[in-house]
Amino acid sequence: MLDFLVSVFTQNGYVAVFIVLMICGFGLPIPEDISLVAGGVIAGLGYANVHVMAAVGIVGILAGDVLMFVLGRHYGERALRLRWVAYLLTPKRYALVQAKFSRFGNRLMFIARFLPGLRSPIYLTAGMTRRVSFFQFFFLDAFAALISAPIWVYLGYYGAQNHEWLLKWLDRGKFIVMAVAAVILVVIVIYFWRRSARRRALLKLRQTRRQRR
């Protein structure tokens, strides 16, 4: 798959990378990480600029995700009348997505980026059920894309001349991306928890002062 995508991207450049990544967002069985790595490889071989490639990767990812969310938002359950949507969002997957929503809440929009096979069903369900506003969805999804996409692109860039090294780090890259995302998520959770704790403490202090008066 990697060699095939490198060949296609070499011949068609940024446009091909964008289209493939957008199609990935529709749930087609094309690995997003391999597509990003392939984009990085052609940059490493001199056919593209690696920084522009990282930006194209982010935009392509978000384009596919937004289209899935908007599709669910606009049509609701009527979207299931489309065969490929019904195939993508089976009753079993829908139940699994609902379970993850119950567990993670809106944070699932961030976590979904690191759940291959469930990204599209999650974004589609988020739109259909209207559990998440478009702003929340886009902010969290974009934040996750800003973490994952550059890592894969630069991995391909630095491994373009050494396929053995690149193939070895492809598997490790998944753990690196997830580890970085987990650390950032923990930091965010701690930040908002402390912020909420300060607000509660300030509110309690104000109430105490009012009672003394």
Radius of gyration: 20 Å
Strand content: under 5%
Topology, number of strands: 0
The biggest sheet, with number of strands, parallel, antiparallel or mixed sense and barrel status, is: none
Work out the helix count: 9
- The termini sit apart by 72 Å
Dominant shape? globular
Q: Mean of residue pLDDT?
A: 84
Helix content: over 70%
Order of helices and strands: HHHHHHHHH
Structurally, the number of domains stands at 1
Which spans have pLDDT < 50 for at least 5 consecutive residues? none
Task: Describe this entry's structure for a reader.
The chain is mostly helical. The protein is built from nine helices and no strands. Helix 1 (2-24) packs across helix 2 (32-44), helix 3 crosses helix 7 (119-129) and helix 8 packs antiparallel against helix 9.
Short description:
This protein has 213 residues and is mainly α.
Write the layout of secondary structure elements.
Blueprint: H1 2-24, H2 32-44, H3 50-75, H4 83-88, H5 91-104, H6 108-111, H7 119-129, H8 134-158, H9 163-212
Helix pairs in contact: 1-2, 1-3, 2-3, 2-8, 3-7, 3-8, 8-9
Task: Fill in the keyword field for this structure.
213 residues, mainly alpha, globular
